Amino acid sequence: MAGTAYQKSPVGCLFYDFFGANTLKADVSISVTELGSLLDHTGPHLEAEEYIARTFGAEQSYMVTNGTSTSNKIVGMYAAPSGSTLLIDRNCHKSLAHLLMMNDVVPLWLKPTRNALGILGGIPKREFTRDSLQQKVNATENAQWPVHAVITNSTYDGLLYNTNWIKQTLDVPSIHFDSAWVPYTHFHPIYQGKSGMSGERVPGKVFFETQSTHKMLAALSQASLIHIKGDYDEDTFNEAFMMHTSTSPSYPIVASIETAAAMLRGNPGKRLINRSVERALHFRKEVQRLREESDSWFFDIWQPEEIDEAECWPVAPGEDWHGFSDADADHMFLDPVKVTILTPGMDEQGNMSDEGIPAALVAKYLDEHGVVVEKTGPYNLLFLFSIGIDKTRAMGLLRGLTEFKRAYDLNLRVKKHAAGSVCGRS
């Protein structure tokens, strides 16, 4: 109780001193009746979920304490019963592949595009039409008309869909937007119409949105949310919820989820997200400026040439910057807080340069200098400008890039400046 057991051992005392009394006091048993129940959605847990739903623009929200991998399975177990057919994004999270293993369902794959840089461009509009769905049903053994669809929004690289168009067009009664990487879209006007909970109800349809609260907001690891808009069977859904929820949930995680919602409530939350958007925009412009002023080379950014103000930039047909030759109009948009740095060596159309710098080498250099790279491609690096990224951290990344350029131009040894890289091993 309250960490007293840890204080009965020297090793336990070290653990107690590191995490502190309040953390361990919060780690209480589900038998504490005044706290209610996460599984039954009673007491303070119910109040928190109602508060979260109002904050995030949902009709109902559920707190999940073991990650969006579990949130995805909960939604899928409810919406796609055994023997049914579901549409699923080929660019789906591993947890959804696990759902297919767990549930006896027939998958119909929605196939996204990919550019030469290895960046996925989302599912084209033609895949969402009724004719396309019928062709998939006809070509797949044991398939019926799908009862549920799963779409990754946004992609890892920050491409968001026009979700309002999908909701109106996709002839499926249940649509799940896996939005693990964008729990902030309700709190800034540039994301309007690009999230699962945006817009009004659509008659005869229910929408689910799963979010990793801990990824881009302020919450403990494994903190996740499920948002719902539309009619659904609460009792049946809660059976799926209880199937995947521990009877001993972590109360610190629960508290951190509600805290994340409270931080976003009202104008303070909007200002918080706006600062992230503006900081990312400023960083993009600084990289652009350094590239223009460089006498030789500098890193580039995957974005339109003109980025005067904060917006979700459309991946429009006929433009070269994104590298998608068959892009649809008013369909995909680039999130400004997902910043992809391009290293020399390959352009957006896949044309190779005479000289190049593999992104893995830059990533290793940055890692050695305390900068975390979210994802590394052959010639591109992804960085996330979450609400925790302040000016100092953003400038630290910019300094790391300029110092790498200096070391490269001086032809300094890789072994000295990226000691742990493959190239540097003896």
Automatic annotation (TrEMBL):
<dbReference type="GO" id="GO:0005829">
    <property type="term" value="C:cytosol"/>
</dbReference>
<dbReference type="GO" id="GO:0006527">
    <property type="term" value="P:L-arginine catabolic process"/>
</dbReference>
<keyword id="KW-0456">Lyase</keyword>
<dbReference type="InterPro" id="IPR011193">
    <property type="entry name" value="Orn/lys/arg_de-COase"/>
</dbReference>
<protein>
    <submittedName>
        <fullName>Lysine decarboxylase, constitutive</fullName>
        <ecNumber>4.1.1.18</ecNumber>
    </submittedName>
</protein>
<dbReference type="Pfam" id="PF01276">
    <property type="entry name" value="OKR_DC_1"/>
</dbReference>
<dbReference type="GO" id="GO:0008923">
    <property type="term" value="F:lysine decarboxylase activity"/>
</dbReference>
<dbReference type="GO" id="GO:0030170">
    <property type="term" value="F:pyridoxal phosphate binding"/>
</dbReference>
<feature type="domain" description="Orn/Lys/Arg decarboxylases family 1 pyridoxal-P attachment site">
    <location>
        <begin position="210"/>
        <end position="224"/>
    </location>
</feature>
<dbReference type="InterPro" id="IPR015424">
    <property type="entry name" value="PyrdxlP-dep_Trfase"/>
</dbReference>
<keyword id="KW-0210">Decarboxylase</keyword>
<dbReference type="GO" id="GO:0008792">
    <property type="term" value="F:arginine decarboxylase activity"/>
</dbReference>
<dbReference type="InterPro" id="IPR000310">
    <property type="entry name" value="Orn/Lys/Arg_deCO2ase_major_dom"/>
</dbReference>
<comment type="similarity">
    <text>Belongs to the Orn/Lys/Arg decarboxylase class-I family.</text>
</comment>
<dbReference type="InterPro" id="IPR015422">
    <property type="entry name" value="PyrdxlP-dep_Trfase_small"/>
</dbReference>
<keyword id="KW-0663">Pyridoxal phosphate</keyword>
<dbReference type="InterPro" id="IPR015421">
    <property type="entry name" value="PyrdxlP-dep_Trfase_major"/>
</dbReference>
